[in-house]
Amino acid sequence: MNRVPITLLFLATWLAVFGQTQFPTLGIPLDIRPALIVYAALTHGMPTLLGIVAVSSLGTDALSANPIGVSLIPCFLLGFVLNLQRHLLLREQRFAQAWLGLSGGIAMPLMTWGLLQMESQPQPMGFGLLLRILMLGILNAAACPALFVVFDGLNDAFEYKPIAEMGFRADREIKRGRT
Fold first, then answer.
1. What is the rounded distance in angstroms from the CA atom of residue 56 to the CA atom of residue 10?
2. What is the pLDDT of residues 65-85, one digit of tens each?
């Protein structure tokens, strides 16, 4: 197995952490980490998924005002549940990818907000926060199918696919009748 697509997935995760913290637009960070975790959970094994979760959550917590490790549990739960149930999910269907991106984009911020409520200074839930979470879900719903197309194309470009052998030889002559 070629490690170039996995390395590029880790690089994209690191860039997503940087982009989320450096380029907020309209007060909503460009957070595509849930879409990357959905892709890693449905495509790769548990070690790759755990690495993506660690890079994305610890990188985000290090660059934000959140306590370190608070987004680790939501990232891990999203990836773990999808990895366990990936044989039941329609991985190749674009609408399923979009719905998984939407649900991950909404679930991760809500779980992180729930964990932040256990702090000494809980954050209020208002209409503005719900609107931001919905916009993150829509962003991830759009980004998830695009990520699948890009990273599946990278897998096709860098990984060897064996040629399927035919069940019969083309040069073999079949003799029929009595001899």
1. 9
2. 888 889 999 999 999 999 999
Reading the block at residue 53, the tokens are 């979760």
Under 8 Å between Cβ of 39 and 98 = no
Residues 6+ positions from 57 with CB-CB distance below 8 Å: 33, 69, 71, 72, 74, 75, 76
DSSP H helices, the chain, are 4-22, 33-43, 46-63, 72-84, 94-116, 127-158
pTM for the model:
0.85
Backbone angles phi, psi at 111, to 5 degrees: -65, -40
Other Cβ atoms less than 10 A from the Cβ of 89: the count is 16
